[in-house]
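TL;DR need structure tokens for one chain.
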Amino acid sequence: MTLLRNSLSRNTIALHVVVACGFFSTASAQEPETVEHSTLEPSINAELRYDDNIFLSAANEKASLITILSPALLAIVKPSRHRLQFLYQGEFASYASSSADNYDDHTFQAAALLELGIRGLLDLTGSYQSGHENRGAGLSEGLEPGSDAFLREPDQYDQTQFAGKFSYGATGTRGRLVFEAGRRDLEYTNNRDRTRFFDYDNTHGGGAFYLRVMPSTSLFLSVRADDFEYRFDRSSQPSLNSLEYRVLVGATWNVTGKSTGAVRFGHVEKKYDDDARRNFSEASWEVDVRWSLRSYSHLDFATRRYPSEITSVTGDVIDNTRYSVGWSHQWTPRIMSRLETLHSRQEFRGSVEARVERFNRHGLTLSYEMRRWLAWNFGVSIASQNSNIERFDFDANVVSLGADVTF
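>> reply
TL;DR here they are.
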């Protein structure tokens, strides 16, 4: 599995934005409120990290201290019953032992949650990100430091995304409909002799029907179609353009104080425009479950199986399977811990090397809220990857100490 880790440069400002745009729930049947409210929430995270294998290499491992600074600015406006949200967040850092890996990422995102009458809810998001992939991760995974093929600088990319969802169904009704559509454009901006073949545009659309069968439980059926269009084709390989179809059925529930979750099972099929590539047709699932042992102690379980676009020179698609288990516990009003373990498997279908990777990561995070505006975080992560191709094997251990400051 590809392990991507962000690290920031003290000489460059990187702003990475993540905006959460609300959940799709049914609209309130009450009369509209006229109260308007707006907030401005600046914050900053500072982190010192030690990574003993920054290039995720099987040999010639290189360690480094990494200084990371992540500022963010969130603006929220609530006219009447609507909600508008704008977020600008960044990262900038310095690698003490490898200045070539200093980078800056920028992401801007805006969102609007609009109530349309008593039954309609419209959720719109748009974002732009100028990001990167660490050397030894993403498209450069498996390249050994010191070799002629090793990059002089990390791969960089621009990504834009637009998405919209419309939910129809009033509070308390048995049925609810959700329709969605969106587009994602990915373009690498350097190392173009190699990266241009991984530029693509992804357009998607779909819908879901939710049926409430108990006060806290709903069944649902969802369908989704994705169109992948690559901008450049390799002269010696067939096109990667494809259509992907996904059908899932399942249930969602929310038993207050006990358990929340969503379970989805179904089928996904990926059909290539060029018959020279083998289509992907497999089972697919998405499971997220939380058990609340106490109001201050929770167990989380998640698993996924899904296809993703190829990141190797040869191959058709990556078949991904992931499992994770986590335990979070609030020891005191100010002290919290989280233990988590992750296992994943990636099979590079159609690759010349028949590549298969297994990745494991175990982590512990401790948080201490020293003040209302200041929280300290300490983390340890132990990761390893085993592949049927030796150059993709690696071990990586990370220790970090950080502070979150809100204003």
